[in-house]
Amino acid sequence: MTDIPPLWHLSMTVPQAFAGPFTELFECLCDTVLVMGLDEDPIWSIQGWVSQTPDRAAVVASLALTANGLNADVPEVTIHRQDPRDWVAENLASFKPISTGRFFVHGAHHRDSVPPNCLPLWVDASMAFGTGEHASTRGCLTALDRMTGRPPRRVLDMGCGSAILAMAAARRWAVPVLACDIDPRSVLVARENAQRNGLKSFVTACESVGTRNPVIGRNGPYDLILANILARPLRAMAGDLAHVLAPGGRVVLAGFLCRDANWVLAAYRSRGLHLIARVVVDEWQTLVLGSHP
Predict the structure, then answer these.
(1) How many other CB atoms are found less than 10 A from the CB of residue 292?
(2) What element of type H or E holds 154?
(3) Cα–Cα distance between 251 and 264 in angstroms, integer?
(4) How far is C-alpha 193 from the chain's CA centre?
(5) Other C-beta atoms within 10 Å of 56: how many?
(6) Does the pLDDT at position 279 exceed 90?
(7) pLDDT score at 130
(8) Are 50 and 27 in contact (CB under 8 A)?
(9) Tell me: the pLDDT tens digits for 90-108?
């Protein structure tokens, strides 16, 4: 396998409260990012892999700029070459199942240990963001598990990543879900995951910058919209998401820290949506909003 080029591995540890901003930075610097940490862990690990040799000075400068904005210490970063086969096998083996409400997110190594009476989601570590470990993903799964009332008929997962949320909605309600992402790699992974989970007939994945892909308009309006992204882009697309939301529909927003929740909420309230519920996991918050019938 000498024809496979080596990867460069970047690694650092940060306080859990600052994991979000530093993860965003690594997502700009790296091709793939992995965040590791449990609810009770004060320190989280952030790792990234990139195919091009990173500029250490530029990486350190970017870390310092982010840390200054947070009034935090600059984390120490390690950078070294790594065989790409090592991290894939290692992450697949170490990915522990996650139980959130009725949802059970697991990798290939735990297919034979799925508990009864749960909603299983098989997701392996991949190039696309999302194995269910992040607090924002768990917040969304909790919101979906707790959701009551009339089941949705059409669902949109905006910024689907590995399609965990799209598959969760399809698994719970057996309804069509359109999963969209700006990253073509995520679209491919979303399709593979849907097929692996036996949900290919329910989950359709497509590439889209926001709601620009015409297929989004053709398949709407949506009774449920899921968007686990970041605070700033969520605010920017408030009008677009409100436009494709059906009367009486619900929106689940995540990907931001608790301190930014009201800032995100204000953008959607200005579009006529009202707050239904908040879900807090660690320092991350998920908002469930609704439109008037």
Answers:
(1) 9
(2) none
(3) 12
(4) 14
(5) 11
(6) yes
(7) 54
(8) no
(9) 555 555 788 888 999 888 7
